[in-house]
Amino acid sequence: MKAFRDPVHNLIRFDKDSQIERMILDIIDSKEFQRLRHIRQLGFSFFTYPGAEHTRFAHSLGATHLMKRFIEQIERTKNKHVNVTIDEITDQRALALCAAILHDIGHGPFSHALEKMITVDKVNHEKWSVQIIKGNTEVNQILESYKSGFANEVAEVIERTHNSRAIVKLLSSQLDTDRIDYLLRDSMLTGAGYGTFDLEWLIHVLRIGKVGDHIEVGLDLEKGLNIAEDFVMARYYMYQNVYFHKTTRCAEQFAMKIFARVQQLRASGYFIEMPYELEKLLSAKDLQEVLQLYPYYLGLTDFKVWYYIDKWCNSDDLVLSGLCKQLLGRDLYKEFVTKEGFDSYKSIINLANLYEKEHGIPVEYILLEDDSHSSAYKDNYISSKAKQDEGQEAEATEQIFLFDKSGEAAELSQVSRIINEIRNNKIRFKRVFVPKDFRNLYIKKYG
Amino acid sequence: MKAFRDPVHNLIRFDKDSQIERMILDIIDSKEFQRLRHIRQLGFSFFTYPGAEHTRFAHSLGATHLMKRFIEQIERTKNKHVNVTIDEITDQRALALCAAILHDIGHGPFSHALEKMITVDKVNHEKWSVQIIKGNTEVNQILESYKSGFANEVAEVIERTHNSRAIVKLLSSQLDTDRIDYLLRDSMLTGAGYGTFDLEWLIHVLRIGKVGDHIEVGLDLEKGLNIAEDFVMARYYMYQNVYFHKTTRCAEQFAMKIFARVQQLRASGYFIEMPYELEKLLSAKDLQEVLQLYPYYLGLTDFKVWYYIDKWCNSDDLVLSGLCKQLLGRDLYKEFVTKEGFDSYKSIINLANLYEKEHGIPVEYILLEDDSHSSAYKDNYISSKAKQDEGQEAEATEQIFLFDKSGEAAELSQVSRIINEIRNNKIRFKRVFVPKDFRNLYIKKYG
Amino acid sequence: MKAFRDPVHNLIRFDKDSQIERMILDIIDSKEFQRLRHIRQLGFSFFTYPGAEHTRFAHSLGATHLMKRFIEQIERTKNKHVNVTIDEITDQRALALCAAILHDIGHGPFSHALEKMITVDKVNHEKWSVQIIKGNTEVNQILESYKSGFANEVAEVIERTHNSRAIVKLLSSQLDTDRIDYLLRDSMLTGAGYGTFDLEWLIHVLRIGKVGDHIEVGLDLEKGLNIAEDFVMARYYMYQNVYFHKTTRCAEQFAMKIFARVQQLRASGYFIEMPYELEKLLSAKDLQEVLQLYPYYLGLTDFKVWYYIDKWCNSDDLVLSGLCKQLLGRDLYKEFVTKEGFDSYKSIINLANLYEKEHGIPVEYILLEDDSHSSAYKDNYISSKAKQDEGQEAEATEQIFLFDKSGEAAELSQVSRIINEIRNNKIRFKRVFVPKDFRNLYIKKYG
Amino acid sequence: MKAFRDPVHNLIRFDKDSQIERMILDIIDSKEFQRLRHIRQLGFSFFTYPGAEHTRFAHSLGATHLMKRFIEQIERTKNKHVNVTIDEITDQRALALCAAILHDIGHGPFSHALEKMITVDKVNHEKWSVQIIKGNTEVNQILESYKSGFANEVAEVIERTHNSRAIVKLLSSQLDTDRIDYLLRDSMLTGAGYGTFDLEWLIHVLRIGKVGDHIEVGLDLEKGLNIAEDFVMARYYMYQNVYFHKTTRCAEQFAMKIFARVQQLRASGYFIEMPYELEKLLSAKDLQEVLQLYPYYLGLTDFKVWYYIDKWCNSDDLVLSGLCKQLLGRDLYKEFVTKEGFDSYKSIINLANLYEKEHGIPVEYILLEDDSHSSAYKDNYISSKAKQDEGQEAEATEQIFLFDKSGEAAELSQVSRIINEIRNNKIRFKRVFVPKDFRNLYIKKYG
Question: What does the DSSP assignment read for B54-116?
């Protein structure tokens, strides 16, 4: 029995004598998984919440631990009223656990800031995960030596194309092991109490049932309604306060502008050193090509990118060195609040032009626009894949089901006024961040 | 009121309207303090405890928060029975808070591994702290604009030479704000429950009294004896289990061997790139000279060193690249346990020679010897400075006093059998770590 | 410094050297306050939640502790933008603390079950509190020796007629020290995680401002909106799950039926012994008279009533002894669920008549009807007193205000969609409880 | 699945579909077990710690929950190195769980105060438990309908005479499910943080092994040493601070003196009403006879005794009414501290005689002597039963074993200096409590 200590779950145990859990331990020991120790779970949130230093590594362990607990509970509470075979869940325990431990294997450093830089035609971390699982990697080898074709299956669960719908939804849905772990973990480590809910009760009221022809994982209608609400609310509060915190968003804008400046300068012929892995990735012409460069992608970590941010502090280009110094020293821009809101920001272009002249900083580095949006609970049923245009929130947009004693299913927003209220209302923050002294210029000009 | 969220203390608040706390906030914003965001509190412990990613930055905030609470409690419970003026504590609130926020400002990356590399004549993190506080830094400027000569005073508290003994001991003694915060924090973040004790009760029973001519901070004899024991025991357990965990110690040995190899290779004329700040520091001839290079020291962070570990994975030198790959992939050596214990390890030199021949790895990179020792409670009264030969445990080795109602002081180990038992018994682990396959060779040879 | 240990707040401290806090300690030592040790906070909830044994005594300490913390926070964050003098809060600290410690002094045993029995013309626990404070009691003496007329003032705060509106609302409003303590306490002790919210943050964002001519205590608009929602939701969940739990409600119905039977029997000339204090109280003709009997009321405790329940187990009347045995043994009735809901219950009268004939139990002891309702957030502005017809929820039905930086107030349900959704929707449970074997009869008859 | 919410363990679940757990649920529903709702776990501690209202009912559920978890862990970690069959543990799961749920069924009200009153020749709560299990009770019927002779077996486990030594020790030994639950529970509910230890880790390192011919439950030597120490220390602190708190001890002395006075008065021919159950029990001539009166014993609860304490407040005997009023109002005696300690108290008899003359209170009601002692860790191996003269600490005085990888056992105090230090040192408090004004008399006389 191998035990990891964990601030959220206390002990996360894997049984070395079980073939399946031994495989999980081998995956944890793999080079690709060890890399997740160097990817912060919350990107730039540590600037806002000094405790938010936790990594994708710890989160992946936590999500796998929850997957084990979910499956145990489902085994315990086979719903007698519904003629449902849960074999697809219990027989495929290996699949569920491997998908859980590997679901974030394709996450890159620096949250989404870097992702956008190397994005060729909408490549996201899930595509990278799939590529790493299928590619010539230690992880792939471990999966294939369990069963030929197994890597493919794991990838399908992560892509949400696997035909075992229940396994797919245990990993990514409105109420999955991934988001349960990250809410609890992010809440605890940031120290912002919003993400708490009674995990033990939630697991206690887990049920399976049928919705149409599909087996679905849901909650007991009578005992689970309030914990379902509490859980959706926790997510809503975390977006409102933590994930979309202005300081965090501003830091991410800084990072994106830094990468943009580097590319701009290189395009203009300047020599700006960057991680050679990144250079390689940027050379790819399309999605197909960039994904083939996954060995380089695997060379990227938070520490490598921070090293270059630090190095670029010494650049001759004052815009680049300025942004880097400010990011490293957490000497960020301030939100520029006007009574008219976001749209009025566009009207301060003239002022920004003035500021550009005074300080030699191009307008696009003066006005950092950020438009963050998410949804705490989505209504539309997304078949097996998220839609392209859902942006950041694409990962898991399905519904939460509540089952009554006869096994009949009700969708959460149908039975909860509160959830119905927030289901289609996006959480949205449109902001502009400007240099601290920009405001003075504004006052001088407009009084 | 500026509030930091914190997983340990929930809210850490500083009042922007108070001159003193405004100064603390300015220090936090300084370049030198922001650097602590990139120094892990526990060096390599994250390899053992995935949650142990917390930084010196968060710890320093926590220690300062405790200093505020300690001083408030002391103000509340002026001991009427003893003719003690606590003015030296309350009047010097600014001094106490500044010393608390800055006590780890001189910490370098990679725990003590790197420290040993650049050590010229016993320079340690406290000497760096003093240098940074007195040098041409933002921190120095902030302190001096509060009061001329103030930086010097703060440095004296950290060096334990300041004549306000009470302030010195609030920061570094057997029962100080520094170690209270780190025990609670390390315990929570590692997930190892050993470091817990009832902080609220400990603060509640804080007392001041006189020991000889000195004002001392201690605990109420009647109400504080058990919490004092519990606190010392917490520290004892943390050393036994967390700080001296074999995986953590082995990783630190790896880091030291990597640095040793780099220097060895450079001495032999190979070109091995290293952080230019480190190169600069290594060029110093003595303590005086190296301390003057503090601007370079301030350029060192965890991410910079990890970047080079990653880079050295591609070195032509197989010893260096091997060690680096193993460290990054957490593919470490195993403890070699013999019935005869540590001393018998020396007798396996012959075997190591054999292994060297087979694998081309010099003996000093095959047998990694580690001798960790500390003491949960020291007996001898150390005047104002720790002694040279106390090594790692030098920081604070004084006694805990318990005051009865008449203000008379008793030393903890005199009134507690338990503490008396452990006071002079070093916690000590002597180990040798060897490559995984070394054991096979051993069995082949010795059966 | 006197410290009480508390599972919710850890330490609750009162300073013996402060005149005001010394008064609080004297009140705690008074005979009338010590009686609260024998009144469970949650009546019959211990039948549902084995941990819910906590008393009005502990809750009153907790509410007073919160009152201290609230006032400290208000002192720290005087709102500069509003021309508000908070003197009425800080000068009247004594008043606020005394009202907090005494707000439940008039609570009787057995939750509301007994209250209804001795109710003559709507006397409730607040009227008793006022009577005890003004009467010839130790508590009255302590208050009056602080300041002549002070007992009256304290009573006015509890009655919500005192002209210091802010003090009144700190004790009883939508966001008061009373309900904050009971939500946290009930949640922790029942073990039902619903009532949790981040107390530290809630206190951190407390603000005062003006609404019309009144000083109001509210929260910071920007930082406090989500905690306000979280707090209202916590209350909503506690009502849904804990306070209105069917087992708890059924036990309370049992108690009411037991008291009803005792009175019925006595009215018919049977001699049924009951607590002489209760006998005395029942002899009163009107509100005026019953309140004058407060010394008898003060003789009532949970243990006294349970003693008689136990004694009545031996009654010759089989209805009475049956109900008592069943209550003591927690062998309660079951909820009778029909598809048609509560109203259809009325149609099973015929069946109950049949059951009466078989078992000799009058219909009114076969069908126990319970109609529980509350509201998590009320909309209508209740001037200084609750209205007569609000029943159980009368205590505090005002609004929560959020203040922006300029001091302008917004009412919570105006700025929160979620709260707006639930504000006028009563939480309501209409149930009928029937003997376990009643259902069989139903099936026999209706199939 | 029936779930109890619990403040300590969150959810305590029993599976209705399992025959064994269904039996546990039936026992919980029995009249005899429901009675435990009215027996406080900590007697008079609620006078010292307002939160300490928890009952034997909740503790018994907790101990049973831990028994389930212990057995699960033992099943998971069958020690391969030792040729041990754990069948005696797993096969006898029913026995272990029934013994756990019933181990406190014989506890009477008022802690040990009343026990001493009705003690005829050393009858204690364990003898009552056995009697209730074997007698004509609902509990007996439930056990016997599981298997004929099963009640006897359960009684043997509680008496520690059952030949399945491992089951016996899981319930009562130095490291048993009983004391683990009560330490955690008492610590949480009193709010005194001393009893905390990492339960998850303790369960994780549970091992079984052989000591001589016996199967023993112990801990992993390497991983369990510190948690074993921490656990023993937790118990030590709880005795020092909570169980032997002077206020609690004084209240218990009051209760004993009240019962003594009642008997004294009745012996002198006064009519003093007392619970008829108690009257009946007091009429028994010897152990055999008193145990046969168990139906009367089962009629005793905390509320019944408190009812009489309250009633006796109106007694004509001023000594009795005085003591009762003081106990109910928590207006207790004060500890009389002299420099010479306990023995010198005997020399103040003269003074007490004087006080007796002034106040008409016999000396034995003026000087309340209390001699509390326990041991945090006992050394001598107690075969299957505790010895007669161990008093309060008799329940479980055996050793804690630590097993190395080869299954070899070491006794805790042999490998831990700390435990060795405290193993034979009794925790002992000898005190005398006197009326508050007695001290004045003392000063008047002796200055």
Answer: -BHHHHHHHHHHHHHHHHHHHHHT--TTS----HHHHTTHHHHHHHHHHTTTT--SSHHHHHH
Task: Tell me the fold of A246-373+430-446.
Answer: Growth Hormone; Chain: A; (1.20.1250)
Task: Tell me if D349 sits within 8 A of D363, measured CB to CB.
Answer: yes
Of C128, C354, C121, C110, which Cα lies nearest the Cα of C253?
C110
What are the structure tokens assigned to D109, written together?
């009200």
Closest to C227 measured CA to CA, from A243, A180, A241:
A241
Whether the per-residue pLDDT at D123 is higher than 80: the answer is no
Burial category of D274 from C-beta neighbours within 10 Å (exposed 0-12, middle 13-18, buried 19 and up): middle
CB B202 within 8 A of CB B180: yes
Residues of chain C with CATH 1.10.3210.10: 2-242
- C377, C388, C381, C444: which is closest to C417 by C-alpha? C377
The three-state secondary structure class of A215 is strand
Task: Dig out the tokens for D255 from the structure.
Answer: 């209760």
Cα radius of gyration rounded to whole Å, chain B = 23
Torsion of CA C377, C381, C386, C392, to 10 degrees: -20
The closest CB to that of B10, out of C10, C13, C200, belongs to C200
Q: Is pLDDT at D13 greater than 50 in this prediction?
A: yes
Residue with tokens 């429950």, as numbered in its chain: B193
All chains having 3 or more CB pairs closer than 8 angstroms to chain C:
A, B, D
Judging contacts by C-beta atoms under 8 Å, the chain B residues touching residue C7 are none
Vertex D14 angle, CA D12 and D20, to 5° = 140
Average pLDDT of span D331-358 = 82
Is residue A93 within 8 A of residue A21, CB to CB? The reply is no
Q: What is the ipTM of this complex?
A: 0.93
Q: Is the pLDDT of residue D198 over 90?
A: yes
Question: In chain D, count of helices (H) and strands (E)?
Answer: 24, 9
- pLDDT computed for residue A381 by the predictor: 33
Q: Which residues pair with C416 in a beta bridge?
A: none
> What residues does CATH 1.20.1250.30 cover in chain A?
246-373+430-446
Query: Is the CB of A204 less than 8 angstroms away from the CB of D1?
Result: yes
Per the structure block, which two tokens stand in for A152? 């493919």
pLDDT tens-digit map of A354-386? 899 989 999 999 999 998 888 766 533 333 344
C-alpha torsion sign, points A313, A316, A317, A322: positive
Residue from A250, A228, A243 nearest A194 by CA: A243
Best C42, C181, C242, C307 residue to mutate vs chain D (most D CBs within 10 Å): C307
Q: How far is CA C206 from CA A178, C70, C214, D114, in A?
A: 35, 8, 16, 50
By the CB < 8 Å criterion, does C193 face chain A? yes
For residue A302, give Cα distances in angstroms to A53, C440, D409: 11, 68, 48
CATH superfamily placement of domain C2-242 = Hypothetical protein af1432 (1.10.3210.10)
Give the C-alpha separation, D399 to D218, whole Å. Answer: 9
